[in-house]
UniProtKB/TrEMBL annotation:
GO biological process assignments: translational termination
Pfam families cross-referenced by the UniProt entry: PCRF
PANTHER family: CLASS I PEPTIDE CHAIN RELEASE FACTOR, PEPTIDE CHAIN RELEASE FACTOR 2
Protein name: Peptide chain release factor domain-containing protein
SUPFAM superfamilies the record matches: Release factor
InterPro entries: PCRF, Pep_chain_release_fac_I_sf
Domain Peptide chain release factor: 47-155
Signal peptide (residue range): none
Length: 211
């Protein structure tokens, strides 16, 4: 209804926020519709297979498809936090491990970009600091699309890699660390209602000489 209004696009930021909300809703409704359709198709196929045994071999594949769709719905049902439907800001920092840690951080960066693109998310590199030898010292990504934050929030924390270092002439085992932080991308266009009863004014006075 809002999009039909003549002044909808006057405020680009508000318009984009509204479209983002619609996409998030669509990301939930689409797999639900697909699961319902798959269940209907399976029911029809089972009935037809009773009349034609040649169709019985197609039933397992349809069951697998329905189970996959239901699994996706169950996962989305778990992503019900207040910001889970939002886009995500993901930052990476190389930690202990020297050059290996920098290389590990870049490996993670490529992995997250690949995951986002594979799932049709928009990816924007906000910041990247390359190391002079190999890898990166830090990077920041905006991953935009429905449920991006919900899917990625569990990545927050320290990620460890243990391997034979390609940067060590003696071929020693090296443990490397990279820190990941994920936060929701929240539009400035979001309206925040502040009621008078929610505002408290505190007054502090100095008790000693000279303040």
């Amino acid at each position: 209804k809002k999009m039909a209004e003549s002044d909808f696009w006057n405020n680009q930021e508000t318009a984009q926020a509204t479209i983002g909300e619609l996409k998030s809703l669509g990301a939930i409704l689409k797999p639900l519709d697909e699961a319902i359709a798959a269940a209907d198709d399976l029911g029809v196929l089972v009935e037809m297979a009773r009349e034609d045994s040649a169709l019985a071999g197609e039933v397992p594949a349809e069951v697998d498809r329905l189970e996959k769709l239901v699994g996706e719905l169950e996962l989305k049902g778990l992503l019900n936090g207040p910001f889970d439907s939002k886009g995500a800001i993901l930052t990476l920092h190389a930690r202990d491990g020297g050059t290996d840690a920098n290389d590990w951080a870049e490996m993670l960066l490529r992995m997250y970009i690949h995951w986002a693109q594979k799932n049709d998310y928009e990816v924007e590199i906000l910041d990247r600091q390359d190391d002079i030898v190999a890898g990166i010292q830090r990077a920041a990504l905006a991953i935009r699309g429905p449920m991006a934050y919900g899917y990625l929030k569990g990545e927050t924390g320290m990620h460890r890699l243990v391997r034979i270092s390609p940067f060590n002439a003696e071929g020693k085992r090296q443990t490397s660390f990279a820190a990941i932080d994920v936060s929701p991308e929240i539009s400035d266009a979001v309206d925040v209602e502040l009621r008078d009863e929610d505002i408290r004014e505190d007054v502090f006075r100095a008790s000693g000489a000279g303040g």
